Amino acid sequence: MSTTHSADTTCFFQGCTSKPMEGSVKCHFHRNRGLCRINNCRNQVYARSLCVRHGGRHPCAHPGCSTNARLGDFCCRHSKYKKLCHHPGCTKVIQINNLCIRHGGSKHCQYEGCATPARCGGYCWRHRKHIKHFKDSANATKEIQSDANCNDTTLWDQGLFDAIAASDVESALSSSPEDLDASILDVLLRCDSLTIGSPDSHVTVA
C-alpha cells in the first residue's frame, strides 16, 4: 500500500506525518537526513546518496568482511580513507595519536577520579554538567581580580590626598595651576618613603 504525501503539509520522508520546516521539505526531526538520489524516492540515504532499497547498503568488498560498505565499496575499517589503530591486532578506526579509544586514543574526563574518555568540552557525557560550572568559576575569578585592582587604585588616591593634606598647601591653593602642580611634586619628592595601600598590597614612592 502506498502512502500519500503532500509536500505542503507533511515531511518528505516515507511514513513521516510531521510538518516540514519553513523553506524545507523535511521536518525538524529529519532536517539532517539525506534524500535518496533516485527520482521520486522518499527514503533516507544510507550510503553513497542512496537508500537501502536502491543499493545504499551492500557488504564490504574486503575478503571475509560482512560489514556493510560505507565509503565506496568498503566499510570504515577497510576503506583507504580511514586509518586503523596502530595497536597490534586492533582493527578499530583511530581517534587520537594513531590509536582508537580503547587503546588510549582519547583524553580522559577532567572530573577528578574519572577515567572515562572525554566527549564534550573535556568531560565525559556523565560529567558534562561541570562545563558550565567551570566557566562560571573562571568568570567569578576575573570579577574578583577586577575588584582588587579597583581597590588598589582607590587606596593609592586616598593615600596621596592624605600626604598632600598633611603638608602646607594653603599657599599652594591660592597659586597658579603650574605652582600647584609643583607643590604636589614637591610633596612626593620630600617623602623619604611613602607607602600607600593595604597590608597585603603596598605601593611605595621613593
TrEMBL record:
Residues 83-105 form the WRKY19-like zinc finger domain. It holds the Pfam family Zf_WRKY19. InterPro entries: Znf_WRKY19. This is WRKY19-like zinc finger domain-containing protein.
